[in-house]
Amino acid sequence: MRVWIDQDLCTGDGLCIDHCPDVFVLLEDGIAYVVEGRQPLNDPGGSESLAQVAPRNAVGVIHAAEACPGECIFLEADVIEADPSVVEVADLIDDLDDLIDEAAA
Ligand code: SF4
After folding, report:
1. Widest CA span in the chain
2. Domain parsing of the chain, residue ranges
């Protein structure tokens, strides 16, 4: 999961930092930014500054997004490449389900 903040909407109340201080920071301008590897992503900020969220911080980041009064914390799911062998197994299960349905009819 990745996260970014629309700084144009941020109120600077700091609620996100209460929920997940590893991922959010308030800078001198009084606005929140995301952090990756302890580095604030404030250049340029916004949707061009996405931070990767470590699994241990995922719940805190989701809670921050839910609580954010500016509704300006945006989450993006990572795209996961499907494992071809898993897809084949899923196809086999579908085929078996079809056979069972046909046998029961
Ligand atoms: S909770 Fe939202 S509005 Fe408040 S400081 Fe964080 S990003 Fe800005």
Report:
1. 69
2. 2-76
Class of domain 2-76: alpha beta
Of the candidates 31, 33, 58, the residue with the CA atom closest to the CA atom of residue 43: 33
Helix, strand, coil share (%) of the chain residues, nearest 5: 40, 20, 40
Give the atom of ligand 1 at the shortest distance from the alpha carbon of 69. 3
- pLDDT tens digits for range 23-47: 999 999 999 999 999 999 999 999 9
Cα end-to-end distance, the chain, whole Å: 44
Residue 72 in contact with ligand 1 by CB distance below 6 A: yes
pLDDT at 82 over 70: no
